[in-house]
Amino acid sequence: MRDVAFVGQGMSKFGDREDASGRELAFEAFEETMKDVDATRDDIDSMVTAFGVDETNHSAQPSSEVVTYLGLNPKADFRTEAACASGSAAVRSGYMTIASGLADVVLVMGVEKLNEFPTSHTTEVFGKAGDTIWEYPYGTTFPGYYAMMATAHMSKYGTTREQLSEVAVKNHKYATMNKYAHMQKEITLKDAVSANPVAHPLNLYDCSLITDGAASVLLASEEKAKEMTDTPVWITGLGGGTSSSTQFKRSDNTSIRGARVAAEKAYEMSSKSPEDIDVATVHDCFTIAEIIAYEDLGFCEKGKGGELVEEGETYADGKFPVNLDGGLKAKGHPIGATGVSMSVEIAKQLGGEAGDRQADGAEIGLTHNVGGNGQHVFVHIYERG
Amino acid sequence: MRDVAFVGQGMSKFGDREDASGRELAFEAFEETMKDVDATRDDIDSMVTAFGVDETNHSAQPSSEVVTYLGLNPKADFRTEAACASGSAAVRSGYMTIASGLADVVLVMGVEKLNEFPTSHTTEVFGKAGDTIWEYPYGTTFPGYYAMMATAHMSKYGTTREQLSEVAVKNHKYATMNKYAHMQKEITLKDAVSANPVAHPLNLYDCSLITDGAASVLLASEEKAKEMTDTPVWITGLGGGTSSSTQFKRSDNTSIRGARVAAEKAYEMSSKSPEDIDVATVHDCFTIAEIIAYEDLGFCEKGKGGELVEEGETYADGKFPVNLDGGLKAKGHPIGATGVSMSVEIAKQLGGEAGDRQADGAEIGLTHNVGGNGQHVFVHIYERG
Fold first, then answer.
1. Is residue A333 annotated as a catalytic residue, yes or no?
2. Residue of B379, B377, B321, B370 whose CA lies nearest to B350
3. Active site residue B84
4. What is the pLDDT of residues A326-354, one digit of tens each?
5. Is the CB of residue B80 less than 8 Å away from at least one CB of chain A?
6. Cα(A201)–Cα(B324) distance, rounded to whole angstroms?
7. 20 to 30 A from A120, CA-CA: which of A42, A162, B250, B340?
């Protein structure tokens, strides 16, 4: 088992990118990724590409268009899909490609075009990531799933409307410090609390964005990493987990089982505990999801996630800085790109390259990426070289 | 890098399976896979699941429904997609999961429901696996892509109408010896030559089937494999390659570049050459594809693929037995399941369990799986333990 490092990372501008196709967004991310690395296309052995859904990309084999547009034929590639965790499945696959000895240098790319239809139709398409026999046909979509989780969490732990909104306020604030983020607008707690309802108790500012974008990382074996960069970031822990495809079968809607399992594995593999984490990007597709993530990752006791953000502990100067890139909430959530962009942010943070939103002295980082309403979850832990 | 073995394999009945959902087909394959293995669900650490297309499966996260239905939550899983090579991408990912040390025992599953629409619509959906900016919008679908390859091959090498049909005759014959195969009907050369046209020069019997099905293999590390079976089959070579997303950009339509690259890598990794291969399953989505596969794999000189089948060299008693399970042509081609079912056949052949269609004394096998019209290709080499 060989050590695997990030040697480069980059992303396209996230947003409503009607100016660019998926392959063009990928090219933007690729250029950013390669610009500070002592490597060229020729050094790349293999590729893994994440896309979330066929329909919004108008394609049944979207990754092949990216490989060709980047000029990487005939190198090996395949697509990973795990709904909203597709990007972290790609990072995991990139790690495995190198650690297994099949390649020395792997480009991991995540891409998604979403602003192709009215939001109502896109939400309908996403709904098919829920169980398509037992839930989707009855009208369930993701704002509804997470609204049920929010209701359960508020009922069981006393989580408040204001605590949900605190997540939005924090993530909008940090997005303004990230030039790649979709939203560039600070909001007040009053704005966030009083926004129009989407699925009670979630309102507009509780929901992440319909975003186009791409993000990529270049991974390398220990030997190659040392040739390519002076500032490698090592992947030291990987955990994966799954939850029931149906939400109705879950005994508890205040936590995601697959996330707890994935976190436990990642901590165990890297010999780390929650207290060791200096900076994290977590899956805030809805504000309640970030609060549940704090708890599933062990950043606080169960039920205390609302208080954690309210007390400022997940800001850059808090105990567990979370989503300093703006998160899915304000950076945006282009499905296939999301998990990869989480890794991009952690690599920047551990490299001390995060500018105004830098978590001081961050040496150990974590990404937490949830597919659907918990069907697939990946947690990765990274350490500065 | 740890050695990785097949310890179990199975498949559902392939066919027009309106009696079963995707998850139910997966369960059939899973039961077959586990029945001769000294292992239970508890021994499985992780899973990889191949599905080809969202639309025919009516889902945007189809693998999650399989994980849950098999009772494997909360074990890690993700989906691989590489169009028609999705299943081989899953086998490759299963290998990587174990060889990288992330798991000891991995279930690799491939599933596809296709008989959900009229064939014309399914063909349209598949067309989106071609380049969706530069070719698909102008009406290209897969019979057309492969018809162009057939025309080029006939023009350049003198490949005949009869030689194309010989592939169909062979594969239909062997499908009748495989109870899991979709087609159970021998055909004559006259039948095959005179069938109705689909895309000139390809006719009905040159085309593979619209099939529902699932196939799975259980992979294990060396240590675990020895506990679980007396007849492991080892994965000793893996190669991946890609070709341009557009066919018009390729300089030669008589060969698939990604396939040549994938084969070269697999032979190199396993220290084998074409002459060493005792039995193979290759990607005969259309009859011309099998002829091109012979050549890309080095089973004959370039341009001589038609003669190879005409001379009987790819029958069970020939020099290179190919597609003794009936191939995509007659066993059927449920996209996500196809590559996995190729591996299932090789495992059976190397285990001496292929009954009437057994290639005598087969010790070394190969699978060749093409996504789209060559965008993704995987070649794997297997050896009897």
1. yes
2. B321
3. yes
4. 999 999 999 999 999 999 999 999 999 99
5. yes
6. 59
7. A162
